[in-house]
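Re: the 260-residue chain
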Amino acid sequence: MDRQTVEEKDRDVVKKFRLVVEGKEKKKNREKSRLKLLLGMALACSLAIWLFVDYAWQHKPPVLNIEKTEKMDLSIPESSGDAFSAKPGQPEILQTGKADLLDDPPANTLPPDLISPKFPKKAKDFDDAKLVMLESKKISPKATQKKTITDAVKISKILPCREVMDKQCAATQNEFSVKRDGNVYVWMDVRSKQLPQKIRHIYFVNGRRYRSIPLSIKYPQMRTWSGISLNGAQDVGKWRVDVVSEQGQTLSHIEFRVVP
């Protein structure tokens, strides 16, 4: 073989050797890249798990201590004032810290009409027993029911006002002018033992029924009011406002005058 042929073979061998070396280096690089990717994914997963555990630890719900919970003070704190302001004509709450509740009647008290008279043992006393029965029937159940309903709602105070501010009667007066005032409000402080209750303000002008305005009583002690507008000469005269229960009983009333 000549020298040129030998050099070509040598070049072929060197080329193949280089290809083999380059192939091995590429394989190593691919394995290194794959290893780096796996390490990166492992680190990312570890970081995510650590963050999740840390978040769960910081936001875990508190353990309820049953013994302490049973001794918790569930009393309502006393309020120092009214909770909110409202528009005229809507019932409002008078917050006084403790509800002004009245004592319940004794459980063993019976209406007089249910109490049986004591009959005498002797026949000569039958006339007296008959008289006792007649007197006991004078008190009917309807009268007892009406008395109970009247006692359930009390009008502690009622005032005619020119204006209502902060749920209070701002300007009390007994005479109003159509030109100067324009509006009349009837303000009340109501106490109730049975809730809820519904009452009405019935307005009369010169003996003629003018308007009926319903009011809801939802709290043991509250302030509420109603109002009318003075529109002209037809409103001049003597006014009366009756406070009437849902059963038609008059709980209170108030009078005022309207001048031109």
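Helices lie at 3-58, 66-70, 126-136, 141-152.
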